[in-house]
Design goal:
Length: 305
Amino acid sequence: MTVIALSGSDGPDLRALMAETAIELGQMLDRLLPKPVGDEARLFEAMRYASLNGGKRLRPFLVINSAKLFGVAADAALRVAAAIECVHCYSLVHDDLPAMDDDATRRGKPTVHVQFDEATAILAGDALLTLAFEILSSTETHADPQIRCNLVSAMAKAAGARGMVGGQMLDMIAAEAEFDIGGVTRLQRLKTGEMFAVACEAGAILGRGDMARHQALHAYAHDMGLAFQIADDLLDVEGREEEAGKRLGKDDAAGKGTFVAALGTERARAQALMLADQAVRHLEPFDGRADNLRRVAHYVVRRRA
Ligand code: GRG
């Protein structure tokens, strides 16, 4: 079942659209994931458990709405959206492992290593990551090999050592490293920002967008991603676990380098609002078709999950 917790002020349009995207995305993932049969069924079940389990599906929503700016075919955008969600779900499974954040709850349910076991969780994460590249490199995603190659390259860079995995490494050493605000910004940009960037730029890649519009989406994603992360840090100290569907208060307990630790709650909140406004301004080259992206920038700072 898909659970999306948005605040009332995000308006019925955005809530309904995100819920609609979540359903379509779930159907696409169900088609693309291996069916839980055969000797490897336990692995396939864990992959399904990790990805068909709710979540806001924010990155897929960004892919689909950036693709709409360039008139991309809906099925192609949905396949790329599914690939990004596979990478995101893999990162959550591995992040929850005892060797990393050691979390027992995710999206309101037992984490994958709790529900299955550690080895299965590691393998399910690995298999979700590699499935993403299988999807992106398929001719069903795009007929043009150059576009498929660009998608694969952008995703690999965003997810890898100079992107999300590198950011996770910085996160693991944050307590000892005592990063200043510049260090925290870099950590968060790598850990979560690069995946938002590839989600927003995927539309431009699929639709052969020109450099100016590609860069506008990159700048939007950069500011929106930081606003999202500051909101995440604020949720960690002020949120409610029942709404968030995960353990909160862990950044402080771990002494981690977060925006709230670096700026305090009030300055962090002001910074998030400023970044959301700035993100929207980067969308000036686009017409009303970018309105969903504009709404998302404000939604990420108001969300409660
Ligand atoms: C293990 C390689 C590796 C990377 C982990 C993404 C990540 C890096 C860790 C997730 C842990 C975390 C709480 C990160 C901060 C922000 C974040 C990415 C939250 C989860 O994303 P949401 O809010 O989650 O979009 P849903 O469940 O809605 O998809």
